[in-house]
Amino acid sequence: MIRGDSTCRRKLIAAWRMACAVLAVALAGAFTSPAQAGEVATATGRANAVVVAPLSIIKVDEMSFGRIVARPQIGTITINPNTGACTVTGPILEVGTCTRARFDGMGSKNMNARISLTAVANLTGPGQTMVLDNVLLGNNSSISFSGNPNANGQGVGLTQGNGNQRYSITTNSGIFSLYIGGRLNVNANQAPGVYNGSITINVQYQ
């Protein structure tokens, strides 16, 4: 009896150990990650918004003449205020994208706004100063010229000292955009580097 009980007990223990081993393998298969998991790629983009306050004017886009390759002769780069397109004269090269300046304001529909250029700063940097001139306000559907067509360049010129030009806001929301172009005069053998200037406009709501 004792020998039979001992043999039975050993068989039961062996069977129990085998069952535990099978269960352990099953659990390991359930919780182990796949051998070849896919990699996760992450990218972050930027979101921008422009908030315009009533009776204000804010800068939206800078005026940019792109990247310039100077030559032994002078040249010019002109940004069209209506389209933003670039025109190059002389042997210089312009690489990249030109950008006209943009300012946004807000009044109310049919409100008059007098717009004037209060300052133009030529572009300065490591080399000779580059003159910024022929600064013009482009036409667009958010404002319309309502002043004297025979005064001060028919309302399209923003040359400093021309005085205020009167426009009418045409949008239902009262939000309007001002697009400004200009001409950059590049000197012969212009030294490489970054050059900066500025334009400042004034809007008087009426």
Would you write up a description of this structure?
With 206 residues, the chain is mainly β. It has a single domain, classed as Immunoglobulin-like (Sandwich), CATH 2.60.40. Helices cover 15% and strands 37% of the residues. The protein contains 1 helix and 12 strands. The chain has one helix at residues 2-31, and strands at 56-61, 67-69, 75-79, 86-89, 93-95, 101-106, 112-124, 131-137, 143-145, 165-169, 175-186, 196-205. Strands 1, 3, 4, 6, 8 and 11 form a 6-stranded antiparallel β-sheet that branches. The chain has a 4-stranded antiparallel β-sheet with strand order 9-10-7-12, with no helix packed on it. Mean pLDDT is 79; it is low at 18-35 and 150-156.
